[in-house]
């Protein structure tokens, strides 16, 4: 099923019952659109941590003096998704893939753009997440985009934040 988020009002929980397109039954969702300034995507050429003002703000926010101000705000994670190499060919032709990358941390899920007909895609993106639980696991998955059906899985890596 598909949901057009542009029809939903912000900061309000919507209960949606959506019929499944392939098969029988309904999917029941509770959807709330809310702004999250902490989760961002930017190009590699625009690295906010290199801005001295931004760096100073972050250092202040996570200083030992501020430790107990917001106990759920553990820190932030910046992930640079640069490229993939030697991906499996998953297109019908058997020669190429149309890869895109999904980066997930808890309930935050961000995607790169798709690089068409390429087994060595370059995305050059920076993903920034708020960390609320140091025991979370960062998941990076690469898929092949298929216009006709769901995306094909090309590979995945799971990185526990405690190992970073």
UniProtKB/TrEMBL annotation:
PROSITE patterns: C2
A Pfam family the protein falls into: C2
Any one GO cellular component localisation term in the record: synaptic vesicle membrane
Family designation: Belongs to the MCTP family.
Keyword Lyase among UniProt keywords: no
Gene: Mctp1_0
PANTHER family found in the cross-reference section: C2 DOMAIN-CONTAINING PROTEIN (PTHR45911), DYSFERLIN-RELATED (PTHR45911:SF3)
UniProt protein name: MCTP1 protein
Coiled-coil spans in chain: none
Sample GO molecular function, one term: calcium ion binding
Annotated source species: Rhinopomastus cyanomelas
Topology in the lipid bilayer: Multi-pass membrane protein
Source organism phylogeny: Eukaryota, Metazoa, Chordata, Craniata, Vertebrata
Keywords annotated in UniProt: Calcium, Membrane, Metal-binding, Repeat, Transmembrane, Transmembrane helix
Domain of life of the source: Eukaryota
Domain C2, chain residue ranges per copy: 52-164
GO biological process: regulation of neurotransmitter secretion
Subcellular location: Membrane
Stored InterPro entries: C2_dom, C2_domain_sf
